[in-house]
Amino acid sequence: MNSQDLSVFRKLIAQRIAELDEGSDAGRDARSVVELDQQAVGRLSRMDALQNQAMAKAQQTRRDIEKRRLHLALRRMDEGEYGYCDTCGEDLPQGRLRIDPAATLCVSCSRG
Asked: Do 8 and 98 meet the contact criterion of CB atoms below 8 Å apart?
């Protein structure tokens, strides 16, 4: 992979990290402590609020994992290891990297 290709993927990764950060900021209130709403009636309202909070926390966990994968991809770029399958060492198709710039396995190796 040439330096121009790496630059394109570096920008794509930076863009995805920024999008994940925006999602984290937007979901901050949903992850906060659930306040008891005196106007809402019954236990179900509290259960709904707790369920929404749990879903927001799960989404944040997925965003954190994705950010970690993207930062590892940037590290692999710096080390000259980006774009190669971790198992067989073959070049990863650029189409695959456009879909998942943090991919570390080719299609054959990912199928197991």
From this structure: no
